[in-house]
Specification:
The protein is an alpha/beta fold. It is built from 15 helices and 20 strands. The strands form 4 sheets. An 8-stranded mixed beta sheet has the order 8-9-11-10-14-18-15-16, sandwiched between helices. Strands 1, 2, 3, 4, 5, 6 and 7 form a 7-stranded mixed beta sheet that branches. The chain has a 3-stranded mixed beta sheet with strand order 12-13-17.
C-alpha cells in the first residue's frame, strides 16, 4: 500500500529518490508548470530547454527522467507532460493532474519515495494529484514469485523488483495543517484503497474467486468497517424464488450467492441502493463464447466489485447517507445441469423470462437483485455491469453508457462521472425496442433486436425496477478491463471503473444535492 503525505518541504530540499515536476505544451515550446520553481532554479532557469533537448514536448503522459542538478537533494528529476498549457489566469484541469501523477507514479515503480511538485494551488488540485499518484502506483503482483514479482527472495528483500509499487508519495505544497488539504488527502487515500480493492478482485483468476469466496471477502470487509452483511446461499436463493440467479448459476459446481452489504448512518435522510453484476466467470453457458472471447471473462464481475468498493468507501468516509450494495454473484458454465436456450425461468419478481441466449446472463442475475433492492424502497437505485459488447461498439473502450428511467437522474450521474474524471455518455431507452423482447410463451425474453443491443438490455432491466424509484444503469463493459498498455493512472487489467462515480453520487446524496 503506497503511503501518502502532505509536505511543506521545497522540491530542492526534500530527501527522496525522485522529484516529479509538470511540464506543458506552450505556444513556443515546453513550459514548466507551477510547483517546479525550485527545480527550475537549480537548472539555472533552463529546465525547459534541457527537457526539449532530451526530446520532451509536454504532451499528456509523456515521461522524461534526468539526473538532478546541483542543489537538489533528490538524485532524479522526472518531468511528466500535462498536455496543453492553460490560458493565462486559468489553472490545470483536475483530470490532467490526475493522469500526469498516475503516469509519474507508474514510471517510478521500484522507487521508495518521490516528491510530487505538481501544481497544487488548492485542495481540489491536491486531491487530484493524490488520487492519480495512488492509482498509478497500483500493481497486481499476488500471483508472481514471492508475491511481489521478484525473481528470487534475495532480490525481493533488497527491493530490486521493478514491479514493486512506489512506496511513498509526498505532495509538495500540500499544506498538511490546512483543514481542506488534510480532508482531501484522507479522502484520496480511502477512495483509492477501495478502487484498488476492486482492481484486485477483477484481476483475481476465477479459480480463486468464485461466488462463495467473493461473498467471504464481503463478509470480512463488513467486519472490518462495521457494515451490515447478509449472504443468501443456493438453498436460500432457491427457497426464495430467485430464478434468475439460480438459472444462471445452476450449470456451475460453484453455486450462486446474493450478498447484501450496507453502510448506515444515524443522520442519514436518504438511501441509495447499488446493484452489481458479479459473474465471476462467464463462459457463455450453453451459448458458449467462441475462442478469443473467453480469456478475460474473469472480469465479468467488475460491476459487483465496483459496488462492493463503493459501499466500503462510503463507510470509511463516514458519509451521512445509507448505501446498500447488492452483489449478484454467479458463475456461468455449461454442463448437464445448465439452463438451455429456450428454457423459461421464473424470476424473483414473479415474471417469467424465456432464455433465448444463455450468454445474456448478466441481465438475469441483475433482474433478481433489482427486484430485491426495490423492496426496500430506496430513494434511488444504480446498477453497474459489464453488460453488453454492443455498448463497447457504440462508445469504445474508455467510456461507459448511462441509461435511466428519469432524465434528470441520468443527467446528474453523467455530470458526476465527468466531474470525477470518468468518461461516460447518456444513452436513450427507445420504447420501440421493447417489442423485440416479446415472447410467445413467457412474459419477456432475455434477447431482443440485435441492433441497439445495449439499449435493449437496459429496457430489460427497467422491467424489474420498483415503481416510483429513480433508477440508472451503468454499462461499464468498455472501461472495466483494460487490455492495452497502461496509460495515466489506468493499469493493464481491472480498472475499478465506476467506483469514483458511485462514491461521489453517495456524497452528493448525503449533501442533499440530488433532491
Amino acid at each position: 500500500m503506497t503511503a501518502l503525505t502532505l509536505s511543506t518541504s521545497s522540491a530542492s530540499t526534500l530527501r527522496a529518490d525522485a522529484v516529479v515536476v509538470g511540464v506543458a505544451k506552450g505556444a513556443k515550446g515546453v513550459v514548466v508548470a507551477p510547483g517546479a520553481e525550485a527545480v527550475d532554479k537549480a537548472f539555472g532557469g533552463k529546465l525547459a530547454a534541457v527537457l526539449e533537448t532530451l526530446g520532451a514536448s509536454g504532451a499528456e503522459g509523456e515521461v522524461t527522467k534526468l539526473p538532478a542538478a546541483d542543489g537538489l537533494k533528490a538524485p532524479v528529476v522526472l518531468a511528466v507532460g500535462l498536455g496543453d498549457a492553460p490560458a493565462k489566469g486559468d489553472g490545470y484541469d483536475s483530470e490532467a493532474l490526475r493522469r500526469a501523477a498516475g503516469s509519474a507514479a507508474r514510471a517510478l515503480h521500484g522507487t521508495k519515495k518521490a516528491g510530487f511538485a505538481l501544481p497544487v494551488e488548492d485542495a481540489e488540485a491536491a486531491a487530484a494529484v493524490s488520487e492519480g499518484a495512488l492509482l498509478g502506483a497500483y500493481s497486481f503482483t499476488a500471483y508472481r514469485s514471492n508475491g511481489n514479482g521478484a525473481k528470487n527472495a534475495k532480490d525481493a528483500k533488497k527491493g530490486k523488483d521493478a514491479k514493486t509499487p512506489l512506496a511513498e508519495v509526498a505532495i509538495l505544497g500540500g499544506k498538511p495543517r490546512d483543514k481542506d488539504f488534510k480532508a482531501a488527502a484522507e479522502r484520496a487515500q480511502a477512495l483509492t484503497a477501495e478502487i484498488n480493492r476492486a482492481r484486485d478482485l477483477i484481476n483475481m483468476p476465477s479459480n480463486d474467486l468464485d461466488p462463495k469466496s467473493f461473498a467471504t471477502q464481503a463478509q470480512a470487509a463488513a467486519k472490518e468497517f462495521g457494515l451490515k452483511v447478509e449472504v443468501l446461499d443456493e438453498k436460500a436463493l432457491k427457497k426464495g424464488g430467485f430464478g434468475g440467479l439460480m438459472g444462471v448459476g445452476q450449470g456451475s459446481e460453484a453455486p450462486p450467492r446474493l450478498v447484501r452489504i450496507a453502510h448506515t448512518h444515524a443522520k442519514a435522510k436518504k438511501t441509495l441502493a447499488l446493484v452489481g453484476k458479479g459473474i465471476t466467470y462467464d463462459s457463455g453457458g450453453i451459448s458458449l463464447k467462441p475462442a478469443g472471447h473467453n480469456e478475460t471473462m474473469k472480469c465479468d464481475m467488475s460491476g459487483a466489485a465496483a459496488v462492493f468498493a463503493a459501499v466500503v468507501a462510503a463507510a470509511r468516509l463516514g458519509l451521512e447517507v445509507n448505501v446498500t450494495g447488492w452483489l449478484a454473484l454467479a458463475e456461468n458454465m455449461p454442463s448437464g445441469n445448465a439452463t438451455r436456450p429456450g428454457d423459461v425461468l421464473t424470476m424473483y419478481s414473479g415474471k417469467t423470462v424465456e432464455v433465448l441466449n444463455t450468454d445474456a446472463e448478466g441481465r438475469l442475475v441483475l433482474a433478481d437483485a433489482l427486484t430485491r433492492a426495490s423492496e426496500e424502497k430506496p430513494d434511488a437505485i444504480v446498477d453497474v455491469a459489464t453488460l453488453t459488447g454492443a455498448m463497447v461498439l457504440a462508445l469504445g473502450n474508455r467510456t461507459f453508457g448511462i441509461m435511466a428511467n428519469d432524465d434528470a437522474f441520468r443527467t446528474s450521474i453523467h455530470e458526476i462521472a465527468e466531474e470525477v474524471g470518468e468518461q461516460s455518455w447518456p444513452m436513450p431507452m427507445p420504447s420501440e425496442l421493447r417489442k423485440g423482447m416479446d415472447s410467445p410463451i413467457a412474459d419477456i425474453a432475455n434477447m431482443g433486436e440485435r441492433m441497439g443491443g445495449g439499449l435493449v438490455a437496459g429496457l430489460f432491466l427497467k422491467e424489474f425496477v420498483g415503481e416510483g424509484i429513480a433508477w440508472a444503469h451503468l454499462d461499464i463493459a468498455g472501461p472495466a478491463f483494460h487490455e492495452g498498455s497502461p496509460w495515466g493512472y489506468t493499469p493493464k487489467g481491472g480498472t475499478g471503473s465506476a467506483v469514483r462515480t458511485l462514491v461521489r453520487l453517495a456524497e452528493r446524496t448525503a449533501a442533499g444535492d440530488l433532491g
